[in-house]
Amino acid sequence: MRARVTSPVRPIEPRPGRSDADPVNCMQPSLFKSGDLAGEGLACRRGDRVVFARLDFRLAAGDALVLTGANGSGKSSLLRLMAGLLAPAAGRLSWGGLPLAREPAAWHAALHYVGHLDATKPALTPREMLGYWAALHSPDDEPAIPTALAAFGLAAVADWPCRWLSAGQRRRLALARLLAAPAPIWLLDEPTAALDSDGEERLAAAIAEHRARGGRVAVATHQPLDLDGAHELRLDAYAALPEDALVASW
After folding, report:
1. Which pLDDT tens digits describe the chain residue by residue (250 residues)?
2. Most buried residue among 12, 96, 103, 175 by CB atoms closer than 10 A?
3. What is the pTM of this model?
4. Residue 187 vs residues 19, 144, 217, 246: alpha-carbon distances, Å
5. Is 234 exposed, middle or buried (0-12, 13-18, 19+ CB in 10 A)?
6. DSSP-derived pairing of the beta strands 90-95 and 37-46
7. How far apart are CA 199 and CA 193, in angstroms?
8. At residue 174, what are phi and psi to the nearest 5 degrees?
9. Selection from 21, 12, 84, 74 nearest residue 44 by Cα
10. Strands 98-99 and 90-95, sheet pairing
11. Rounded Cα–Cα distance for residues 190 and 15 (Å)
């Protein structure tokens, strides 16, 4: 995959009205299990600053996309766009040709987003935390909590209060959410932060197995990751040009 420059930044078109016959009205999370995740002509605005513009990417089954670039180049912002936590200032995000913005709840059910914060409750145990995330994300599926704990080396501390865990163990717990409930796409922001070499190897193994099953992964990182055949997207190459400043006024 090669990221490519597209046409000048354009504002998002207003969302058209929909009738009962519109097939998007019937979209279910299962429809987000096939097709490519694609971004076309994306621009991101944070406050009055256009972080990046004219950005394209495509993520097919089994693909890994590694986001690199200097601090402030937009790696985390792009992941947040993919996760539906930010709206693009311009361009389009789609899955299998269907706009993500049409059914945000279905899209959120199809992904795991692991950000900078580990999202743990000090009084709960790792087992309880994973049970909560599994019930929230996939209430109809049997949670794979023992598998998730073992995969990230947390079985021995599974019943400790999270306040007893080290920073690295809390990070492992955040990543174990990926395995506690199924989701076809993983969005990971600096996932190796606070991990030791064993934790990094466990993460790489989990990503490899996910991709082998047709899953998709996008990772923002400053550290090298052993992801076979991953595509690199350097955000520095999409720094906004002076004429893109008009995006900030849309």
Report:
1. 444 333 333 333 333 333 333 333 333 444 455 678 999 999 999 888 899 999 999 999 999 999 999 999 999 999 999 999 999 999 999 988 889 888 888 888 889 999 988 889 999 999 999 999 888 877 666 678 999 999 999 999 999 999 999 999 999 999 999 999 889 999 999 999 999 999 999 999 999 999 999 999 999 998 878 899 999 999 999 987 766 655 544 4
2. 175
3. 0.83
4. 33, 20, 6, 29
5. middle
6. antiparallel
7. 10
8. -60, -40
9. 74
10. antiparallel
11. 33
Contact present, 74 and 182 (Cβ < 8 Å): no
Tokens, residue 93? 């995000």
User: If we measure between CA atoms, which residue out of 107, 151, 110, 109 comes closest to residue 130?
Assistant: 151
